[in-house]
User: What shape does this take?
Amino acid sequence: MTTKAIKKQLDSYLPLLTVKQQELLLSMVKSILHIDPSDKRISRKQYNKELEESEKQIKKGRFTSQEDLEKEAQKW
Assistant: This one.
């Protein structure tokens, strides 16, 4: 079945559902896709600010190397 055919069928069935059924279907789709409604995208400005802060921490030596992290994880 093609994507176009699937979309056409979904579009024809969706109006037949009650609002509660539509909400349930939407919830199931989000669950399948692992979409968390509380996840909010940050702005480019905020993203760049966080990058700058991270770079400052690295320059100050405040980071964990991959090797150290692997050693720590072995203790778990």
